[in-house]
Amino acid sequence: MKRVQSELVENVSKLLRENKVGLFIGYQDGSLPLRTSPCFVTKHEDVQRLVWNSFCANNLSVYLKSVLPGLPANGRIGILCKGCDSRSLVNLIVEKQVKREDVVIIGISCPGVVNTDRLLAHLEGKKIVDVEENDEDIVVKFDGGEERFARRDYLYESCLNCAYPTPSVYDILIRVGKHSPKPVFPDPMINEFNKKSRTERWQIFEQELSRCIRCYACRNACPNCYCKECFAEQTKPRWFGLTNEHSDVFFYHVVRILHQAGRCVDCGACVRACPENINLRLFTRVLVDEVKERFGYEPGLSLNDSSLLATFSTDDKQEFMAEAD
Amino acid sequence: MNEENRAQPFEPKIIAFLCNWCSYAGADLAGVSRFQYSTNIRVIKVPCSGRINPLYIIKALYSGVDGVLVSGCHPGDCHYISGNYFARRKFALVKRFLEYIGIEPERIQFSWVSAAEGVRFAQIIDKVTSEIRKLGPLTYFRRDTGQKGT
Predict the structure, then answer these.
(1) A247 → closest Cβ in B93, B143, B150
(2) Which residue of A10, A88, B95, B121 is most buried, as measured by CB atoms within 10 A?
(3) How far apart are CA B72 and CA A321, in angstroms?
């Protein structure tokens, strides 16, 4: 991990010194242990702030929509991309929200990111003083001892079932230790859910989403939610109420998830952003699988793709259409 | 009068989004030909089935209808050449997702009806209506009325 970090710092420093980018988006240590926050570096003296570790969870592509408009002419942005981040970014390029020539992508062949909440649950409020990690383990040192965790046991679910840990598009690639997830398709969680009865499924949907407080963090964390005016906030017409009554919450989530159909790369940003720990992935992933199965399409793999719903095939299946008897 | 008739049978409200060029004309043909079909549909004419944003379907369910039917030109016959092909992709995903989260799939229906298919239009409306009638009212998705559960 140290090697990766120094390789990263070196590359970014070079990009900034040679004026290839005016801004670099990466990660820095968070204000709490075992967390990182996004880091915007504009001067090469600041590159030492950049880190790479198991807690670099955020999907950084999300920041492009806010920094690109302020970009000076011919200015370019450097960005650190894991496999999923790069797919989000490719998707943004395909949908013409970002120009390929405006970004310099430092790709990281991602070893998966660790769910901090699950680690912390094991540490039960101990005062953490230091963290060390290698390819296999994370060693957390706290007052009066240390504890060793196997990385693999604490990865996010979306990382465990990740099909593309290596970025699909990059300018510079940094290789990180081994991560060999064995993606299962469709996702086992979805299969499990599918087996339940219709009423059970609705009950789970209702139960999960009843915790929603309509903070829109799931939307804001998602790189592919880039509408300037979101349907949830439109006033002409106002499509649905602003409350967190069940029906308003269902409306918001159903439409948000449908908007992500054919865009979602299952990076898990919405799940991590949710302050109520709603398992959004249970509902977003189903369309990822459906899109792959029905249309053979996986978003964000190639710059030459056209986005799923902006194209069609005359051979698309239509077994669901109603027929007269 | 038997028990069933005295208790008013449930009559579903169904929104039918019909495309201007085929299905709406099909409905018109059914009308001028005096074909009898269920009176449960409320028609909204749209320029093309490709004009249907999934948001409209959700909005209809939220606003208190019991089912939604979207109908357009047969594949290959779209007035705008390819609108219904784009629509078909969206329909597949909407249908799959709503079914997945536990909404009865019969409540969201899609069909192709041409301007010459008055009979077929009447048949499809009858079929869709009877399927939704069997399910009873959609209570759990509409704007909060205090009713909970399925």
Answers:
(1) B143
(2) B121
(3) 11
> Which residue from A37, A38, A45 is spatially nearest to A16, judged by alpha carbons?
A45
B127 contacts: CB under 8 Å, gap ≥ 6? A322, A324, A325
Residues A205-215: tens digit of each pLDDT? 999 999 999 99
What's the pLDDT score for residue A66? 84
Sketch the domain layout of chain A as residue ranges. Answer: 2-115+155-308, 116-154
Chain A residues in contact with B85 by the CB 8 A cut-off are 312-314, 316
Shortest distance between the Cα of B40 and any Cα of chain A, in A, equals: 17
Tens digits of residue pLDDT in A160-170: 999 999 999 99
- Residue A192's pLDDT band, with cuts at 50, 70 and 90, is very high
Nearest CA to CA, how far is A130 from chain B (Å)?
Answer: 43
Phi, psi (deg, nearest 5) at residue A300: 80, 20
Q: Residue A65: which pLDDT band, with cuts at 50, 70 and 90?
A: confident
Q: Find the mean pLDDT for residues A220-244.
A: 93
Burial class (CB within 10 angstroms; exposed 0-12, middle 13-18, buried 19+) of B6:
exposed
Contact assignment for A206 to B127 by CB distance below 8 Å: no
Residue A73 is predicted with a pLDDT of: 67
- Of A199, A255, A318, Cβ closest to residue B150: A199
Structure-token pair, residue A205: 């949907």
Chain B interface mutation, best of A190, A249, A250, A311, highest count of B Cβ atoms under 10 Å: A250
Q: What is the ipTM of this complex?
A: 0.93
Between residues 5 and 34 of chain A, which touch chain B (CB distance below 8 Å)?
A: none
Domains of chain B (ranges plus CATH)?
10-135 (3.40.50)
Q: Which residue of B has its CA nearest to A283?
A: B101
Residue B144's pLDDT is 67
Q: Chain B residue closest to A314 (CA)?
A: B85
Q: According to the model, what pLDDT value does residue A226 have?
A: 93
